[in-house]
Design a protein that fits this description.
The complex is a heterodimer of chains A (about 110) and B (about 160). Chain A is an all-beta fold and about 110 residues long. Chain A has strands at about 5, 10, 15-25, 45-55, 55-65, 70-80, 85-90, 95-105. Classes of the chains: A mainly beta (about 110), B alpha+beta (about 160). The interface of A and B includes residues 56 and 63 of A.
Chain lengths: ~110, ~160
């Protein structure tokens, strides 16, 4: 069961630069590991992470197997207006998860 | 009469140099088990498209000595304004010796306010980690850190 952890300040002053932290639980299987019998464990990773604010993309990441399990990202944005952050993770084997968080800007 | 042997020597050296340049066309037929510095250079060329990558502006915070290569925290920041007319477009992370040279690409814009990204990565060996930032004026800036890893990622068997 996939689950996301999101850390967005609930309130901010207009013009403040705020930090957003996200963590998605995922194995991030690299595709380079072998079982004891020598078979390759197939790749199963998150390939793309996107953050949108009120529908506009503000941050996007392309992920490779070198990103650690349970991908964590922290990035910044300028608080301009109240609204909703939407987060989306897309990956191998049809993996797709979303999460959202609201902020009120004064 | 002194001139002619000299000039022919020069011509010969010029031709030899040209032949050497032509001869050094890398032909990669088999994908190596781990990325090589050549693959790192190729991955950087894919991003920079042949543009010069200058050292500076970028700060790569990563522990120089890592016990567990499975989760290595790192922070990349770029000392550059994030104004609509002049900002950081993207940050790219590379490594030297993992099976793939790419780690991640991060796409930014003026709305970010600060060009700084943190994440956690895997390192399969002691190696160099490179961060490259692309600015809106088309220039590229980089920073690299050598990291020593005691327990490598990706190599253990699955039970």
């Amino acid at each position: 069961m996939a689950s996301a952890l999101i850390n967005v300040p609930a309130k901010a002053k207009r013009g403040d630069i705020i930090e957003i932290k996200t963590l998605m639980s995922h194995i991030m299987e690299t595709g380079y590991r072998h079982t004891a019998s020598g078979e390759v464990v197939p790749r199963d990773i998150i390939t793309s992470f996107t953050c949108r604010f009120n529908g506009n993309e503000i941050f996007r990441a392309d992920l490779f197997p070198a990103v650690a399990a349970n991908p964590f990202f922290s990035f910044f944005t300028t608080a301009t207006e109240s609204g909703k952050f939407e987060f989306e993770w897309i990956g191998d084997k049809g993996f797709s998860e979303t999460a959202s968080a609201s902020i009120s800007v004064e | 009469m002194q001139q002619s042997p000299n000039s022919s020597r020069r011509q010969f050296l010029g031709l030899a140099g040209g032949a050497a340049v032509l001869g050094v066309v890398p032909i990669v037929t088999v994908r190596p088990a781990e990325a090589t510095p050549a693959m790192l250079a190729a991955a950087i060329r894919n991003v920079a498209g042949g543009a010069a990558v200058k050292t500076g502006k970028v700060k790569l915070d990563i522990p120089p000595l890592v016990e567990n290569g499975n989760t290595v925290p790192l922070t990349v920041s770029v000392a550059h304004p994030m104004a609509p007319e002049d900002h950081v477009v993207s940050i790219h992370l590379f490594n030297e010796k993992n099976p793939q040279p790419n780690i991640g690409n991060f796409h930014l814009g003026p709305h970010n306010g600060r060009a700084q990204v943190s994440t956690r990565i895997r390192l399969a060996d002691s190696q160099k980690v490179v961060a490259i930032a692309k600015l809106s004026d088309g220039s590229f800036w980089s920073a690299s850190v050598d990291v020593v890893v005691t327990l490598a990622a990706c190599t253990e068997e699955v039970i």
